What we know:
With 696 residues, this protein is α+β, with helices and mostly antiparallel strands. The protein folds into four domains: 14-146, no CATH class; 150-245, no CATH class; 263-618, no CATH class; 628-695, CATH 2.40.50.140. It is built from 19 helices and 27 strands. The strands form nine sheets. A five-stranded mixed sheet has the order 8-15-14-11-10. The chain has a five-stranded antiparallel sheet with strand order 25-24-23-26-27. A hairpin with a 4-residue loop joins strand 14 and strand 15. The longest helix is centred in the C-terminal third of the chain and has 36 residues, at 592-627.
Amino acid sequence: MSMRTVEFPGPGCVVEYMQGNKPHIAWVLEDQGGKLRLLTLNKRETKLPANRLLPWSGPRHDAGLSRQEVISHLERYNTAREEQVADIDPKEIWSLAQGELGSATAQWFAELLWEDPDVEHISAMGRALLECKTHFKFRPPEFEVYPEDKVDKRLTEQAIAKEREELTVAGQAFFRDLWALHLKRRNTLPELPEPEVADKLEALLRRRIAVPDDAETAKVWRPLCAGMPEDPLLALHLAKAWGVVGPHHNHFFDLAGYEEGDAWSQPFSQDTEALREQVTARQGDVEQGPWVSVDSASTRDVDDAFCFARTEQGYQVSLALACPALLWEFGSELDRSVAQRASSVYLPEGVSHMLPESLGTDLFSLLEKQPRPALLLDLELDERGALLTCSPRLAWAEIAANLTYETVETCLECSANESGQEAVSQVERDAGLDVGHELALRLRDLRIEQGAVVVERYDPEIMLVGEGKDLKVELEVKEPPPGAQLLVSEMMILANSAIAEWAKENAISLLHRTQDVRVPKELSAIWREPHHIHRAVKALGPSILEPRPAPHASLGVPAYSPVSSPLRRYPDLINMAQVTSFLRTGQARLDTEELTSMLPGLSSRLEAVGRVQRFRPRYWKLVHFKQQKADTYYHAVVVEEGAAFVSVSLPKEQIFVRGKRDTFGEKLYAGQQLQVRLGRIDPLGNEIHILEALEE
């Protein structure tokens, strides 16, 4: 018997073939014209085409041996070959061959170890190379030698696959128990996996909360969650059940990739301190004026203030706007982080500022009696409120006072009543707030003449009482300060539309908020009733950011460039920098093409962050409803009737809810007042249904 390889294996020959991604040894019983009948090591017969054999057949024996003798030979050969495989280091073989050739036979590789290899050596080498899939690829009859970069890549993939498999084995049962805990099918937290595994599972949950359809983690996520529903909030439910996030975790921040609070700014503490020193060193003569700001009592980021006077032509308005664009380094790491935040977010649980708080609520905030860099807008208007001139200038300004809405409302009420004149403070008199309110009324009337759609609605204050699972949500409806709010809103519209007109006259590129649609004439009015508001808003398209001026239909202005809130919104900061640069050098920082190139990314970030501002307060309102008794009824107004559903507004709570058409009576019309009972409330899923509707 020769131990050499056999080129044409026939009866009595030992052969090997691949099955289940592994080599198997067999004995040829019969050759049926290229199709072989084999006896395998497990004593079974099988048929196999000759071209399926591995290219190292042999040795050949007497074809007349008994089955027991055949099996004995196969067991001996298989054991011997496996023992030799254990002595072969395929990675060492790869290091000898890599870079020398692209591919070779198992015999060639065997000759690297043995001077005259026989079939046993060749088989052992072939088996060893077949197992080393990171370094070799079998392309019969040769083995391809992977280059180093491909080996590194496959080793990394192999490590990831191994880690994924280990994580699945360790975490699958744990996740099932967490899901049972979420469904209240168990009462206690399951035993935690090993710390290293637990850390990886927690990181996976946090990643899936932020990116529910994350392709990178999908391969490990799917087997871990086998048998659970395909819910985009599944990771959040599991994380809450585990306790790695709180019961009211704000996943909207995660979805937006927005870091809550001010901790994000800590790595930039040296940058902000250096900016403070640079800005302070640039301080010049301070202009002290009668400007006052009007905000809520808790506001710390004060970005606008104003004062008013009557003139022979009509009105004079002086607006002081915070100017963080002074020495701002666009393109820096700090700027990129601020641009990523895009906007401040104001929520019941707290404020997350766009700028580091050391800048937005201190260095650049228009705090009373504190000199601050400012963009001053000196405006002249006629008796109707039409803009005559707009003169922007840079200065260091010191405003007289930070007033609240309530304080200003009281001032306006006293100013309108002769007997209450003495209650008006000297600061309020100097600021001319009564003149400002008179102008605000005329500005609003003028905008309505120009097609504006004015909506007056007031959100309740959402108050969070307690913590964790014991937290209660209360909605408090306060008497609104309509005069003060009108004064502030009209001054902001005036500032942003005036700067847009000035920029157009001076060929300065700015970002514009536009809504270039045709508003039906009958909608140009002040709307207060829910069904009227719904009809008016539905008729208007969304506003968009554009680099060229265009009308903003619902505001009733020919152009609108946001510049009044540079501490809170990134487009305003960009526009502030454009104006500042022009006033200093006669040239804007960016041209229209450069602004255009910024828009896709900026608009995307504003939309993502805007969803947090829209959906989180609604979440808290739904939590509030869920915490009320099941038999609680709420005042509602029908705003829209459809074939299958009816939409109603809850004016007190300022929320829209839908109910099935058959829940309501036969007589139904927009403006109809009802009492509704709510149910099937899921704050996380943003679901709330009307279970019963009774006509008031």
